[in-house]
Design a protein that fits this description.
two-stranded antiparallel sheet, mainly alpha, single chain, 18 helices
Length: about 425
C-alpha cells in the first residue's frame, strides 16, 4: 500500500463496512498491478497518437513551411534549409520518412513515439516527486488526456522533441538524487543534450538539474568527488548535443566549419531576426495570456480547408496551474527537495519567456505540461481517502470529486479529439 500512497499510507487495519472494504481491496489491487495499469495507459496513449495519423493528409502550419521540407532535404543528404533551430526534430522526421516513406505517417511517426515516451517519464517523475505510484499514474493519465500534448504527438514539429527529452532528463535527475545511480545521472545529461538538439530553450532546465546534482553529491561528502557528478552531467549533456550534430553532419556531409556557421545563423535568428511582438506591452503580456489557455487554430499553408485546434485540456491545464501554486505553498512550509525541484523546473521553463522580445506562441508551454500534471497528480492523491481509515461521508465526497474530475477530463478529450487531430474540415 505504501507504493500506492507513498508516505501517506496508513498502518491502521482495513476499515470495517462494505464500502471501506471495497475501497481497501481496490487500493491494494492498484498497488499490486500498477505496472499492468501503466502498460495499459502507455498502450492507450500510443494508440491515440497513431489512430488516423495521416489526418490531416497535408502538412499543417510549420510542418509544411519548415520541418517536412527540412526532413526531405536531410534524407536526400542536403543541408537543412531551416536554420532557425538545431536539427534533432528534422532528423527524426527524416528517419520516419526513411522507414515509412514521404507521407503523413513518415512525417509524424517519430513524434507519436516521443510523445508516448514523455508519458512514461511523466509517470516516473510523479513517482520520484511524491514517492507514490498512484501519483505517477494520475500524472501520466492527465498528460495522456491533454489536448496540446496529443496534438504535438501527431505533428512533425520540434516541440515534442524538446518536451519529451526534457521530462526524461528531469525524471532521471531526481532518480539520481534519490538513489545516486550513475546511469540516471548519465541519462539525465544525455536527455538534456538531446532536448537542446531540438530547441535551445532546453538549456533553461540545466540550472535546476545542476543544482540538484550538486546538492546530492554534497550530502555524500566534501571531498574531491563532489565535483565528479556535475562534471559527468556536463559531459553527458555535451555528448547528447554534439551527437545530434554529428548525426546531422554524417547524413548531410557538412563539415565542422559549416556546422559552426549554422550556429552563428541560429544565434542571429534567435537574437536579431526571430520576429517581435507588436509592442512592448504585447511582449510582456503574451506569456501571461498563455495561462488563459486560449484556443489557437493552425491551418495548412496550401489548403485552408484543413485545420487543427491547439489548446490544452482545461480540466488538465487549470487544475495543474492551481496544483503548482499548492506545491509552491508546500515548498514554503516544508522545503522538500523533490517538490522544490519540480517547482523550480516549471518556473524556469516559463518565466524567461517574459524577457524575450520575440513572437511567442501558447504551445511554447508544452515542456511545462508534464510538470503541471505531476503537481496535479500529487494534489489528487492528497484528496483520495487514506486506506485503512473509516470511509466517512467527506472522504467519499473527495473520492467522488477525484473520479468526476478524471471522467470529465477524459470526456472533454474525447469530444475535442476530432478538432485537435485535424479530422474536421472547413
Amino acid at each position: 500500500m505504501t507504493r500506492l500512497f507513498g508516505r501517506r499510507a496508513s498502518r491502521i487495519p482495513p476499515a470495517d463496512g462494505d464500502a471501506g472494504a471495497r475501497y481497501e481491496r481496490a487500493a491494494l489491487w492498484v498497488a499490486k498491478h500498477h505496472g499492468v495499469l501503466l502498460a495499459m495507459l502507455l498502450a492507450g496513449s500510443l494508440a491515440s497518437h497513431l489512430v488516423a495519423l495521416d489526418s490531416p493528409p497535408i502538412p499543417l502550419f510549420d510542418e509544411g513551411g519548415s520541418y517536412v521540407p527540412a526532413g526531405r532535404a536531410i534524407l536526400a543528404g542536403l543541408p537543412d534549409p531551416n536554420f532557425e533551430h538545431p536539427p534533432l526534430g528534422k532528423l527524426a522526421a527524416a528517419a520516419g520518412m526513411a522507414v515509412l516513406g514521404d507521407n503523413p505517417w513518415g512525417w509524424r511517426i517519430t513524434a507519436a513515439i516521443t510523445g508516448t515516451v514523455g508519458v512514461l517519464f511523466t509517470y516516473r517523475l510523479g513517482v520520484a516527486v511524491w514517492g507514490s505510484v498512484g501519483a505517477g499514474l494520475l500524472a501520466a493519465s492527465l498528460l495522456s488526456v491533454d489536448l496540446l500534448w496529443l496534438a504535438f504527438s501527431r505533428m512533425a514539429m520540434l516541440d515534442i522533441f524538446l518536451a519529451g527529452p526534457l521530462v526524461a532528463a528531469l525524471s532521471l535527475a531526481l532518480d539520481f538524487h534519490h538513489r545516486r545511480s550513475r546511469w540516471a545521472l548519465t541519462g539525465s545529461g544525455l536527455c538534456l543534450g538531446l532536448a537542446a538538439g531540438a530547441k535551445w530553450s532546453a538549456a533553461w532546465a540545466f540550472p535546476p538539474v545542476l543544482v540538484l546534482v550538486w546538492l546530492s553529491r554534497r550530502q555524500d561528502g566534501r571531498g574531491p568527488g563532489r565535483y565528479a557528478a556535475p562534471a559527468a552531467l556536463f559531459a553527458a549533456s555535451a555528448v547528447g548535443y554534439l551527437g545530434v550534430w554529428i548525426a546531422y553532419g554524417l547524413q548531410t556531409g557538412q563539415e565542422v566549419s559549416q556546422l559552426a556557421l549554422r550556429h552563428l545563423q541560429m544565434i542571429n535568428y534567435q537574437v536579431v531576426a526571430g520576429g517581435r511582438e507588436e509592442s512592448l506591452v504585447a511582449n510582456l503580456l503574451a506569456p501571461g495570456r498563455w495561462l488563459l489557455n486560449e484556443p489557437l487554430v493552425l491551418a495548412s499553408r496550401g489548403d485552408a480547408t484543413h485545420w487543427q485546434l491547439l489548446m490544452s485540456n482545461p480540466l488538465v491545464f487549470w487544475p495543474g496551474v492551481a496544483a503548482a501554486i499548492w506545491v509552491a505553498v508546500r515548498v514554503a512550509r516544508k522545503r522538500s527537495p523533490a517538490e522544490m525541484f519540480l517547482l523550480a523546473s516549471a518556473l524556469i521553463l516559463y518565466l524567461p519567456w517574459f524577457a524575450l522580445p520575440r513572437i511567442k506562441y501558447f504551445y511554447y508551454l508544452l515542456p511545462v505540461l508534464p510538470l503541471l500534471t505531476v503537481a496535479a497528480g500529487g494534489g489528487l492523491m492528497r484528496l483520495l481517502p487514506r486506506p485503512g481509515l473509516p470511509l466517512t461521508r467527506p472522504a467519499r465526497y473527495r473520492l467522488l470529486l477525484v473520479a468526476a474530475h478524471l471522467g470529465l477530463a477524459l470526456a472533454f478529450w474525447v469530444g475535442a479529439f476530432p478538432a485537435v487531430t485535424g479530422m474536421w474540415r472547413r
